[in-house]
Amino acid sequence: MSAQGDCEFLVQRARELVPQDLWAAKAWLITARSLYPADFNIQYEMYTIERNAERTATAGRLLYDMFVNFPDQPVVWREISIITSALRNDSQDKQTQFLRSLFETLPGRIQCEMLLKVTEQCFNTLERSEMLLLLLRRFPETVVQHGVGLGEALLEAETIEEQESPVNCFRKLFVCDVLPLIINNHDVRLPANLLYKYLNKAAEFYINYVTRSTQIENQHQGAQETSDLMSPSKRSSQKYIIEGLTEKSSQIVDPWERLFKILNVVGMRCDWQMDKGRRSYGDILHRMKDLCRYMNNFDNEAHAKYKNQVVYSTMLVFFKNAFQYVNSIQPSLFQGPNAPSQVPLVLLEDVSNVYGDVEIDRSKHIHKKRKLAEGREKPMSSDDEDCSAKGRNRHIVINKAELANSIEVLESFKLARESWELLYSLEFLDKEFTRICLAWKTDTWLWLRIFLNDMIIYQGQYKKAIASLHHLAALQGSLPQPQISGQGTLEHQRALIQLATCHFALGDYKMTCEKVLDLMCYMVLPIQDGGKSQEEPSKVKPKFRKGSDLKLLPCTSKAIMPYCLHLMLACFKLRAFTDSRDDMALGHAIVLLQHEWPRGEALFLKAVSKICQQGNFQYENFFNYVTNIDMLEEFAYLRTQEGGKIHLELLPNQGMLIKHHTVTRGITKGVKEDREEGGPDMGRLTAGTQRLRLGRNSRANGVGSPQGSSRGAPGNR
């Protein structure tokens, strides 16, 4: 029998004995190896028996012998590939854990050499990078030789593969895994321009990762369970999977913290003016402002160095705080459909003082004790004035019940706003920041546009805000349909109400009302609680001049509809109470004053006073819209001798009356009973109404005209 035949016989005999007598099988193989030490099959069979028996130490020694003595055997490399795959695998099953333990028994030098050789045999870029990363983590001394090369290979692969988003497997491995190994190893010498390049790549990745919207996320996830989406309370531990990576590899804990650590390390390596210890975002921004004051005193090299420090430090403070703000006022942008719902907020001009500053005794009806003396009313409140907010601080009102962390949110808004202003305060900062934004395509970031809209409104640049809101609408149209129910409608409502408030601030009241009416198509009538006004006037005096305040209001029908009514009232009030006469605007204002009655009682009395001064009043929609008992009683009183015998045109023409009677048959059912329950006041109102009807019939018979009513006013008093 030949030597080859003898080897095969011994191996075969050992295999047959394994199920019956393992020790006998091992004895046969030991004998065979003594006779034929250079035979690979004998060695491999011994290894197989020990591996299957999960004898870690013995299997490790045999694997080491095969790796040293038979490095060219394909079977050996197949076995090593299985082991290294287990090292990269997130699984915790028994077999995977055994293979990891097996690898740990090998000498460090062999482990390093084994990983290097496996890496050389990988033709897939991602797999090769993961193997090399495994080597760098286990053997930090290899970072000097292989670290930068691996980083550049990943960035090159990202370009070759034409990745659309910076949140991809190649960038993730580079930013989260390779870059920290490189920059924290002081033996790796890196020029400043390469460090800035790496910092830029890291910032772009982390910001896009954190602010990744749910609609883009769902596109990449495919069939991933929505329950795996990030928690609204911990945006830093997202659960979506980056294509090409495992779930575990896709998770990034505290991304902002990681990014600012990279900023600090790069800053130290580039000799920036760094502060010792942990600093708040406000401290960082304050430091950058101080540094800007001395920029012109530095030579060219120092100027370039500190310019990068100011740009990157301020930019990261800006994006961090802008995100914090938007995530608080509109968390649905960053949350999955199964996340707990939170009412979004919208920043608007505060028009809550639209009713004026007159103190009202709530226990009495002022109109019942009204004096007809002229000039007793207080002047209009300052909300009628042109209160430009440019160049000065403005107070933002938030109900703490609607936003628990309101102080932190306002601080984030302030820091983001100041960071933005600093970045555009000097030409060289502006130029560099603009270059970065263009490369990152920040003009396509919906969340950032929402912040910029609010910032521009805060600054009082309303024309610019209107243009920005139109840009936002165009941006929304270019994005995929949102996955969250109502998200698109919400964005549209936000834009409409902010457009309305901007047009109002500019004095374009026609456009204000048009936008409000457009918005009403989306409104659901809120349910009033026991007839009480939805919003009681604040008892706390504002810190700043009235008319300059802003308000973060819930973007719901219950909150937005009263705001819209306030806005329209403010528009009509400005026209109704001017020296020139505008009965239509005055009538509209009276109709709107019914909302939240009696908050608008003082302003209603001012309207009545103006009507008394005019001597007559024409508003043919009066009985279509005015239902407030106090108002109806007051107008009935105006027609009496005691009330001044004011000539009132409050009914539509006869044709309209017939039509009204036809289409409203049955609507007034029960009015008689209500009137009887109204008591003496209703009796007075009924009598006054009858006189109004008689006066209207006389007018219909040609007694006068709308123009004539003005001329005949003195005679009617």
From TrEMBL:
Residues 668-717 are annotated as: Disordered. Residues 698-710 have a biased composition (Polar residues). Transmembrane segments: none annotated. It is found in: Nucleus. GO terms for cellular component: integrator complex. GO terms for biological process: snRNA processing. This is Integrator complex subunit 10. It comes from Bos indicus x Bos taurus.
